[in-house]
Amino acid sequence: MSTISTQNVSPAPRNASEAAAAKPSWLSTHQHQLVLPSLFLLALLVFAAFAPDFYSVDNQLNVSRQAVYLMLVSLAQFVVLVGGGIDLSVGTVVALSSISAAMTMSGIYQDGSGSASWAIAAGTLVALVVGAVVGLVNGLGTACLRIPSFMMTLGMSSVVFGIALLLSAGVPIYGVPPEFGEIFGYGSFLGLPMPVVVALLMIVLVYVLLEWSRYGRHLYAIGGNARAAMLSGVRTRRVTIIAFVLSGMLSALSGVLLTARLGTGESTVGSTFPLESIAACVIAGASLMGGTGRTLAVVAGTFLIVMVQNGMNLMQIGAYAQTMVVGALLILAMSFSRK
Amino acid sequence: MAAQCAPEGLIAGAALADGAQPVLSIRGLAKRYGSHWALKPVDLDFFPGQVHILFGENGAGKSTLISMLAGALAPTEGTISIASFSGGFGSVNEARERGVRAVFQEFSLVPNLGVAENIVLGNEALTSFGLLDKPAARKEARELIRQLGFDLDETALVADLARGKQQMVEICKAVRAVPKVLILDEPTASLSTHDTRALFDLIRRIKAEGTAIIYITHRMEEIPALGDVVTVLRDGQMIAQVPAKTEESRLIELMSGRKVSDLYPQPRSELGKVRFCLDSLSTTDGSVRNVSLRVREGEIVGVAGLVGCGKSELGQACFGLIPHASGSLTIDDRAARFSHPADAIAAGLWYSPADRKRDGLALGRPAQENMLMSALNFGKLQGFFLRRSQEREMTAWQSGKVEFPWKRTKEAVSNFSGGNQQKIMLAKSLGQEVNVYIFDEPTVGVDVGARQAIYRYLHDLTADGAAVILISSDLPELLGLSNRIVVMHAGKVSGEFERADFDQHRVLEQFF
Question: Which pTM was predicted?
Answer without folding.
Answer: 0.76
